[in-house]
Amino acid sequence: MLKAFRITAILEGISYLLLFGITMPLKYWADILEPNKFVGYAHGALFIAYVAIALVFCWTQKWGIKRFIVLFAASLLPFGTFYADKKYLKTLE
C-alpha cells in the first residue's frame, strides 16, 4: 500500500506541474487546447486516487485527521506531494 501511495503522490505532483507549467500556457498563449484536456483528465484521476489512497492509508496507519489534512493540503500546492512523500511517506520504509 505504501509503494502505491508513493507512486500516486509522485505522479499526481508531476501531472500538476505539467498542467500548470506546460499545458495551461499552451492553451492560453498558443491556443493549443488538446494537451491541456488530456493532462487535465489524467491529473483529475490522479488527484482523486491520491486523496482516496491518503484517506485509506491514514485509516490503516491510525494517523489522525491532522495528518490527512496535511496530505490533502499537499495535493493542492505545487511541489506539495513531493514534500509529503519525503516528509511522511519515505520515512516509513
UniProtKB/TrEMBL annotation:
Pfam families linked to this entry: DUF3817 (PF12823)
Q: Which domain of life is it from?
A: Bacteria
Q: What stretches pass through the bilayer? A: 7-26, 38-59, 68-84
List UniProt keywords, sorted A-Z: Cell membrane, Membrane, Transmembrane, Transmembrane helix
The main place the protein resides is membrane
Where in or outside the cell it occurs: the entry states: Cell membrane
The name on file for this protein is: Integral membrane protein
